Amino acid sequence: MPDGRSSHYNGRVQGGSNADNVLADAFVKGVRGAVNWTDGFAAMQKDAEVQPPDNYDPIAAKASTKEGRGALPDRIHHGWITPAFSRAVSRAVEYSVNDSGLYQVAKGLNRSAGGTRYFNRSRSWHNHWNPAAVAAPYNIPGFVVPRKANGSFVPQDPLDCGDCY
User: How do residues 58-74 score in pLDDT, each as one tens digit?
Assistant: First the structure.
């Protein structure tokens, strides 16, 4: 499904599959009849499981920025998204929110196996949490930061990472 729209353009926004959030919101608010929830749930699952085709965004050449979840290979392999994909932290947090919505729909449709899978995935943003990252000069510890394929965190100042990844 489309990621999001900005200025009537379907393309590069935050990086999650935010149509999933719209469907999940409608489901938990009780919208019935106007949406085929079997198809809606299947579309949400596809976003969560299938790498979308690359739309050749010149700013983010590694994966799709138009639809679905372009950084799925890292997330599925590592449990986090490496800086090989643009907006790694933003995508990681958004994918977790997307999976939380998917869990809510799975639970409501009595799909417990899928529900457990997406509940567990919704917690994967924790894999970007670096308790040692400190916002100096305030001495405030703990931030979500990019993480390399080897598991180490990318060093950065959370207040001004500049061109950090």
Answer: 777 677 777 778 899 99
The amino acid at 45:
Q
Q: Between the CA of residue 144 and those of 3, 74, 81, 110, 131, what are the distances in Å?
A: 22, 17, 12, 33, 8
**Rounded-to-integer distance, Cα 22 and Cα 162, Å:** 32
- Whether the bond between 58 and the residue before it is cis, its omega within 30 degrees of 0, is no
Which of these, 137, 126, 84, lies nearest to 157 by C-alpha position? Answer: 137
Cβ pair 103, 119 in contact under 8 A:
yes
Burial of 107 per CB tally in 10 Å (0-12, 13-18, 19+): middle
Cβ-based neighbour number of residue 25 at 10 Å: 12
Distance CA 45, CA 65 (A): 18
User: Do 144 and 130 form a contact (C-beta atoms < 8 A)?
Assistant: yes
Phi, psi dihedrals of residue 101, rounded to the nearest 5°: -65, -40
pTM (two decimals): 0.88
Euclidean distance between CA atoms 22 and 17, whole angstroms: 10
Residue 125 has which token pair? 């943003």
Q: Considering only CA atoms, which of 66, 62, 82, 61 is closest in space to residue 14?
A: 66
User: Token pair for residue 110?
Assistant: 């009595």
